[in-house]
Write a structure and sequence with these properties.
alpha+beta, 2 domains, four-stranded antiparallel β-sheet, 4 helices, 10 strands, globular
């Protein structure tokens, strides 16, 4: 039986259908599932992707702790977290230990690729391309609070998220096949 609720589905990349568990299936958000299926068919490895969620607006109620890297400042840590798609509030710093909470003040639609990819076409309008040595992210932010500090209507955010996922799917369909697939390398386990 396939796992299917209002947020997540199992999507079969071979048949392009929501089907029972099997080798070519993966867990992801409903709105982004067709995009991820298209990318995987074209040989792009993906992980931890998100369609965006309009109903999440909160600060986590427990602290997380990380160890700062040698020479890393609090500002560097916060920037690194931002580049990964997170807004954090630092609660304390003791030596090289930093405590913080996540703030979910924006929704984001994103595809995370756990390796570096160059694409044959630009990312969709309004999306940003973030490339690291061993990762690639295609991301769009959906602000839940406007410039005046007022909450944006949830229906407006939902519509932005839906449109962003349509943009991503059109982009994925227009992409060429990945170099891995063209060169016959195994993509998925």
């Amino acid at each position: 039986m396939a796992y299917n609720n209002s947020e997540h589905v199992i999507f079969n990349t071979q048949s392009n259908e929501y089907t029972p568990f099997g080798e070519e299936e993966f867990l992801c958000d409903t709105l982004i599932a067709p995009t991820i299926a298209e990318l995987r068919k074209k040989g792009y490895e993906t992980s931890e992707c998100c369609s965006g969620h309009s109903d999440q607006m909160f600060i986590e109620n427990y602290e997380r702790e990380e160890t700062l890297k040698d020479g890393q400042t609090v500002k560097d840590f916060m920037f690194e977290m931002y580049m990964q798609g997170w807004t954090v509030r630092v609660t304390s710093v003791e030596g090289n230990k930093i405590k913080f909470v996540y703030i979910y003040d924006q929704a984001r639609t994103y595809v995370f690729f756990p390796k570096f990819y160059s694409f044959n076409i630009d990312v969709p309008d309004g999306f940003e391309l973030i490339q690291g040595e061993n990762y690639t992210i295609v991301r769009k932010w959906h602000k839940k609070v406007d410039e005046k500090g007022c909450y944006v209507a949830p229906n407006k955010i939902k519509e932005e998220i839906r449109a962003a996922n349509e943009q991503l799917l059109a982009w994925a369909k227009a992409l060429s096949y990945s170099a891995d697939l063209r060169e016959g390398r195994k993509i998925h386990d």
